[in-house]
Structures are given as C-alpha cells and as structure tokens.
Amino acid sequence: MRAAHTEAQVRAAEEALMAGLPPGALMQRAASGLAHAVLALLDGAYGRRVTLLVGGGDNGGDALFAGALLARRGAAVDAVLLTESPHEAGLAALRAAGGRVRRGTAAPRELPDLVVDGIVGIGGRPGLRDDTVAALEAHAPAGSGVTVVAVDVPSGVEVDTGRTPEDAHVRADVTVTFGTHKVAHLVDPAARACGVVQLVDIGLAPHLPAPAVEALQAADVAALLPRPTPASHKYSRGVVGVRAGSGRYPGAGLLAVAGAASGLVGMVRYVGDPTVLDRVREAHPEVVGVGRVQAWTVGSGGDNRAGAALRAALADEVPLVVDAEALRHLDAPVRREGGEPVPAVLTPHAGELAALLDVERAEVEADQLASARRAAERYDAVVLLKGSHSVVAHPDGRVRVNTSSTPWLATAGAGDVLAGLIGALLAGGLAPYDAASVGAWLHGAAATYASQGGPVVATQVAAAIPEVVRDLLT
Ligand SMILES: NC(=O)C1=CN([C@@H]2O[C@H](COP(=O)(O)OP(=O)(O)OC[C@H]3O[C@@H](n4cnc5c(N)ncnc54)[C@H](OP(=O)(O)O)[C@@H]3O)[C@@H](O)[C@H]2O)[C@@H](O)CC1
Ligand SMILES: Nc1ncnc2c1ncn2[C@@H]1O[C@H](COP(=O)(O)OP(=O)(O)O)[C@@H](O)[C@H]1O
Ligand SMILES: [K+]
C-alpha cells in the first residue's frame, strides 16, 4: 500500500523521531537522498550544472545541503536565494563545498542541466510570488528541457488537498519526498505537477498514524482478488447482473457486460433492451438472462428507462454499482424503498459528480478529494470519481486514489467496462470500497497493458483484464 499523510501528521511523526536523534540528523538524511536522486538523473556530477532555487524554510535547507554534496562531487552548483533568511547551516555548507550564491531573478548566461525546487515544502502556502515565478522561468523556461526536481513537493501546490488554487506553482519532472508520501502526490491536479515521485526513507514510518489517503499496489490487489477454490461452483463464485445499454447506446451494454465477463465471477446475466440482449449473446455466448444475482451494475449507456432499472436493482437485496444515466435518478442518501441502507458504489465522472452535488464541474475538477468525500457522505455510498487519478471515497472518510492508469484510457466506453468490472467484484464478495478500488486498479492496469504506450479502445481494455489478473496471481 502506498500511504500519504498530511502536513500535521508528518510534523507530529517528525517530532517523535527527532526526540531520539541529534539535531539536524533528519535534514542530512533528506539532503543525502535528494542528492543521490539528482546524481542518478544527471548520471554523475562532474561537469554538470545545477541551480538551486532556495526559499526561507527547511525545504531550502534540504536543497542547500544536497547542493553541497553535489558540489563536493564536482558539479557546478549555483544557489539563487529567494529569501532574506536562508537556512544558515545549509548556506555555509554549500559555500564551503565551492557552491556559488546569488540573489535576483536575472537569467543565467547558460541554462543549467537541472533545477532544484527548494522554494517551499510542506510549510508552503499555495501559489508563488512574482519574483519566484520569474526566477523559475529564467532558469527552467517552459520547453527548455531543463530537468526540474522538486524537494518534497512542487512549490505552490496545496499539500493536504491536492488543489492548485493559484495557477503559479512548480511543474516538476521528479519529486523527491521524505518519510512518506503527501496527499498532493496522489490527488489531482497537484499530482500532475509532481512528475515521478521518489520516496526517501528517513526512518519516519514507525511514528506515522493511519494515512489520510492510500493507493493500492499490485500486491494489495492480488491479496483482495476473489479467486475460486476446488470447492467452488459457478453460483458460489457469484453472479453479476447488468442492466445497461439502450437502443440509443447499445455499445455501452456490450462494454459493461465485457467488463463484468472478465472471468472474476461464475456467471453474468444481462437484463434490458431486447436488441442489446441479442448483440450481447452474439458477443458473449456465456451470458444468460433474468434470474438471481449477487450484485447489479446499472445505468451505463441507459436511456429514460434508467430510473426504472435503478428501482428494480434497488428492490433486490444485493449491492449495486450505479453508473451514468442511473446516477441522475439517485436520492441522497441511497436507500431501498423501506429506508434500508444499500451497499453501493457510484461511478461518476467529474460532470456527473457535479450534478450529484449541484455544483459546477470546474469546482469538482479543482477539488477532487473534497468533492468525492462530500458525495460519499451525502449519498452514504462509496463514490468513485473517475479521472486520471480516480478517487475512491468511503462515507466514513477513508480515501484511496488509483495510480495504475494511462492517459490512453480517456476513451469512449471505458467507464462502461469499469462499471461492469466493479459489479463483478461486488458479486464476487468484495465490500464496496474494495470492489471500487480493486476495480479501478485492474481497469487502469488493463489499459496500460493493452496500450503498451499507444492507443487503445474500450473493447481492448476489457479483453486485457484476464491477462492482468493472471500476471497478478502468478
Ligand atoms: N517534517 C519532516 O519530517 C522533514 C522536513 N524536511 C523538510 O522541511 C520542509 C518543511 O520545512 P518548513 O517547515 O521550514 O517549511 P517550508 O516548506 O520550507 O516553508 C516555510 C517557509 O516558506 C515561506 N513561505 C511559505 N509559503 C510561501 C510561498 N507561497 N512563497 C514563498 N515563501 C513562502 C515561509 O516564510 P513566511 O513567508 O511565512 O515568512 C517559511 O520561511 C519539508 O517540506 C522538507 O523539505 C526534511 O528536512 C526532513 C524531514
Ligand atoms: N487522463 C486520464 N488518464 C487516465 N485515465 C483516465 C483519464 N481520463 C479518464 N480516464 C479514465 O477513463 C474512464 C472514462 O470513463 P467515462 O468518463 O465514464 O467514459 P465513458 O462514459 O465514455 O465510458 C474512467 O475510468 C477514467 O478514470
Ligand atoms: K519544493
């Protein structure tokens, strides 16, 4: 599991760890990890040019000590001070190692190979001052190819929410972070500003509480997957029912079935438009019609009958996935007719979540973590906000973020496949929170596998799911 913590959680853990260490020890660990990451990126130090952008806190201290180490190895290191009060010991170390120090935002005669963003870390307020933006543009102009390495977090993003409320923030190629991931490393749009995130172990782990946000890794998914035993039969493995597709969107029914029919349950039933049923049977001869199910997927590619399909699914005493058109017919909180709670996963994209919350789409896109949490609480259901780092929020406040995907997955019908897949995982016995986060992981991994760095369509994503599961289990 990849764990991400908040600023307050990190500071409390740091205090506990520091109590047993000499002063400055943690910064030395952080700086050494940072310097080694830079050495690996530059493939050495001698003859390489590195510029440090240095703010007034410990984030600047990390950059200065790392710069000292790089200068001792033979790199030409320049520090640009963006503060009146830089970390004193760090500055002295850099000077003693032969590093140069200057102020101001003037462009250098020659661009460096790499810029280290030590402007602010977890203590930073969102946004950057104008002089800082100017210094950044002078040393790493957009499109120049200068590698940007953020220390701990890209300066200017909001660390605990993943928001980027000010347009001015660093866009890093690599972020080197310490002790644990921060929320901004996982949650978009801040996560997109991090580039590749590298974690340096500074001994914080024993002092950290339960994470604020987590991201499943392959081993976690493998441990959660439903799998057959010698005693299994098709009914004991679970049966998923799909009520999706319509005369207008027959393909969505086929794709939801394709996601459900990836072999993770014993049987798939399709209930819906007769013309879609004929095409489903042609494409998936193993799919059957009306009967008992252990979970429903409802709404993908639905028409004006999606409300009736949702009510029919809710009337069954089983968990369900509510997608697309069916989301428009949901009341908050999600309940059966008698008022009983229902184990449910809602799978909106940003526009659909905006409608569920009665806000603008841009608001959801800007504040994905809080929006998903708010919807989960209001609807008393697990909410999966689809996007490049999909957010899975539990009504009790827990959140998982999915990082297995590829931008090639942004393709029509991909969401239908996901809805069917999560329905199958529910039918296989997973709790809604696990079904949603395991489903998102498998779906993203299947897209990555099918894509191999190139284009994919939703049909190929569904077809790749068994291959991904096989890789996980063997
Ligand atoms: N905790 C740990 O486990 C470890 C922490 N470590 C490191 O310490 C970092 C945290 O350091 P920190 O607490 O000194 O805060 P930091 O992020 O440098 O920022 C505060 C300074 O920035 C300023 N400032 C604020 N916003 C600004 C803005 N938008 N634009 C411009 N300036 C702004 C603010 O000054 P102010 O403006 O408030 O006067 C203040 O001077 C952490 O991220 C990691 O790198 C590692 O060494 C070891 C393990
Ligand atoms: N930039 C992106 N990177 C990775 N995955 C993405 C990106 N944009 C969208 N996705 C994924 O693609 C799928 C799109 O689903 P959705 O918007 O419902 O499309 P459709 O309704 O056409 O099926 C979701 O699983 C979403 O998480
Ligand atoms: K930084």
Give an overview in words.
There is one protein chain. The protein is of the alpha/beta class and 474 residues long. The chain has two domains: 2-214, Rossmann fold, CATH 3.40.50; 218-473, Ribokinase (UDP-N-acetylmuramoyl-L-alanine:D-glutamate ligase, 3-Layer(aba) Sandwich). 39% of the residues lie in helices and 16% in strands. The protein has helices at 7-18, 25-42, 58-72, 88-96, 130-139, 183-186, 218-224, 250-260, 274-283, 306-315, 324-327, 350-357, 361-366, 368-379, 414-427, 432-451, 458-473, and strands spanning 2-5, 49-54, 76-81, 100-103, 114-118, 147-151, 174-178, 181-182, 196-200, 213-215, 239-243, 267-270, 295-298, 320-323, 344-347, 382-385, 391-393, 399-401. The chain has an eight-stranded mixed sheet, sandwiched between helices. Strands 4-3-2-5-6-7-9 form a seven-stranded parallel sheet, with helices on both faces. The protein has a three-stranded mixed sheet with strand order 8-1-10. Strand 5, helix 5 (130-139) and strand 6 form a beta-alpha-beta unit. Helix 2 packs across helix 3, helix 8 (250-260) packs across helix 15 and helix 15 (414-427) packs parallel to helix 17 (458-473). The longest helix is centred in the last third of the chain and has 20 residues, at 432-451. It is elongated and about 80 Å long. The protein starts with a strand and ends with a helix. The model has no long low-confidence stretch (mean pLDDT 97). Bound molecules: ligand NPW, adenosine-5'-diphosphate (ADP) and potassium ion. Potassium ion is lined by residues 59, 117-121, 150-153, 155.
